[in-house]
Specification:
This protein is mainly β. It is 7% helix and 50% strand. Keywords: Signal.
Length: 165
Amino acid sequence: MRAGSWRGWTTAAALTAAAALTGFGPAQADEFKLSNNQRIACSRGLSPGKLTTATCRSYAYLFNVKTSEYFRCSVSLAMTRDNKEVINVQTDGGCFKRPRIFDTDGTYEFDAAETESANTNSFFGPGGYAVWASDKANRKVRGCITITTGLGDDLSKCLDMTFDN
């Protein structure tokens, strides 16, 4: 995205455009679901020469309710200003494909939660996220947690939930 192109974009519109660019093929209108748990985290910093930079980042997830594949999407905006005016605005973002949660096709529901940056939960880097998925036709729930290892890759594990009767 070019500087200033963020104006007027909502998270849903940006993710819809990003989804179109990430290789989603033709699909039924109800095959994809946007997570309900979007978060935004902002930080502020001072630079030499009395410049102030504010950066905000938001994450959302686009989930295929048939295959359980999902995309982790992010959008960020960084603004630098002095005492009188905005000097620079930069935007970035995109959606990154993640593996299937379930091996077989079905009818799934899901939700996701993101660790916000500069959080005490971010031990090794920018933090992590959790994705929960359930089979709408069967009593089946899987929880997955992904954290940054600090070694340049992510560690992700999923666990099937057991139910007490």
